[in-house]
Amino acid sequence: MTTAFDQLADRILSGATATAEEALTVLRTPDAELLGVVAAAGRLRRKHFGNTVKVNYLVNLKSGLCPENCNYCSQALGSQAPVLKYSWLSKDETLEQAGAGLRGGATRVCMVSSGRGPSERDIDKVVEMTSALKEAHDGVEVCACLGLLKGGQAERLKAAGVDAYNHNINTAESNHDNIVQTHTYDDRVDTIGKAKAAGLSPCSGLIAGLGESDEQLVEALFALRDLDADSIPVNFLMPFDGTPYENTWELSPTRCLKILTMARFVCPDKEIRIAAGREMHLRSLQATALQVANSIFLGDYLTSEGQDALADLEMLRDNGFVILGMDDAAFDELIEEHRARAAGRVAGGCGSSCGDGCGDACGGHDEQDGPVIRRRGAGTDVAANA
Predict the structure, then answer these.
(1) What phi and psi values does residue 218 have, to the nearest 5 degrees?
(2) pLDDT tens across 246-257, in order?
(3) 294: nearest Cα among 309, 316, 313
(4) 375 vs 90: CA distance, rounded Å
(5) CA-CA distance, 231 to 269, in Å (whole number)?
(6) Which residues have a Cβ under 8 Å from the Cβ of 83 and sit 6 or more positions away?
(7) Per-residue DSSP letters for 285-328?
């Protein structure tokens, strides 16, 4: 039976674009009809991306100590969240962390630092890191996320070999001042424009669960379409204790799936990345969400732990996906390598939740409802979850 969503997919495949009203209809799909709308959006995903999943890896170059008051952020001014706080990683530390992600199956390394925006000395550091990373790993993509850019900085990053620049709009313009007051929505749009003008691939997305209305979610997605973002990370609020959004739980797995499905209809040929909060909010629907999204982060996030890297890879394989740029034999070999390491951890460590082994640094892992603070990888002596 052909549904209205199939007809919408037909029109988009023929070159039309979704309207705001149609996007709202997708977002408000009754749960009983959800698989039908996912199947229709999945046609768009397969048209442009087949069954590939792009795997990205985050390296937090500088954690905490941020002067901006983004209310949702565990690193922001005023946050009491007990996250890791450290200044810039060295070049060698960055190469070590990035290498773990690349060996784990990632093809893009996202180098992120907290702060309002980079100084010229900060740009120097990222230039040096990028050059070393490109020399050590042939074909690696580098995305920088350093905050608000000043004139000429994007050009320097581009000349150094940086491929993309991430700066999320995070929410609709009409909701922006409710979530941060130390910079404006226009400041964020200006940085995306600087990145595009310099020839960097623009990466910009949103955070769902910030008290926005359905209409504001649609507003944000259409803004990203108008900005022509090549990749769109869709984050789901992680309500860290010690932030203004602690104990804020607005999302359900089906709500998150509808948001991603709407994003595919609105931006059919763009990289839709399931980003922070996917494990917590999508839960058992993570694999279903990849029927419309085509990109994930492997392992941990900036300040919180993610799903074990082996579980990520097995989820992709079990559901018929392949990693972009990797053939089946290499994918099988990668999973077996992860399984062998996991077996060693179970025998001598505290289990697969600890990345490559905790050693003496691990104090145990208590079950909790909120985000698990990252205590491994960048800024620690514990191996990364990759």
Answers:
(1) -65, -45
(2) 999 999 999 999
(3) 316
(4) 18
(5) 10
(6) 63, 64, 74, 75, 240, 303, 373, 374
(7) GHHHHTTT--EEE-S--SSB--S-HHHHHHHHHHTT-EETT--H
Residue 59 pLDDT level (bands cut at 50, 70, 90): very high
HEC letters along 31-93: HHHHHHHHHHHHHHHHHHHCCEEEEEEEEEEEECCCCCCCCCCCCCCCCCCCCCCECCCCHHH
- Binding residues for [2Fe-2S] cluster, by number, are 110, 143, 203, 273
Q: What are the structure tokens assigned to 372, written together?
A: 């698990």
Three-state secondary structure readout of 160-205: HCCCEEECCCECCHHHHHHHCCCCCHHHHHHHHHHHHHCCCEEECC
Cα 381 from Cα 276, distance rounded (Å)? 23
**Residues at the annotated binding site for [4Fe-4S] cluster?**
66, 70, 73
DSSP annotation of 374: P
Torsion of CA 266, 269, 271, 277, to 10 degrees: 30
Could you give all domains of the chain from N- to C-terminal order, each with its CATH number?
Answer: 45-332 (3.20.20.70)
SS3 111: strand
Which run of H or E residues covers position 273?
Answer: strand 271-274
Name the pairing type of β-strands 206-208 and 164-166: unpaired
How many Cβ atoms are within 10 Å of 279's Cβ, its own excluded?
Answer: 21
Whole-number Å distance between alpha carbons of 48 and 272:
11
- Residue 380 to residues 60, 97, 286, Cα–Cα distance (Å): 11, 10, 29
pLDDT in tens, 16-36: 999 999 999 999 999 999 999
**Length of the chain in residues, anyone?**
386
Does this model's pTM top 0.90? yes
Instruction: Give the C-alpha separation, 302 to 146, whole Å.
Output: 13
Residues 291, 42: contact at Cβ < 8 Å? yes
DSSP run (H or E) holding 281? helix 278-281
CB atoms within 10 A of CB 88: 16
Annotated binding site: 66, 70, 73, 110, 143, 203, 273
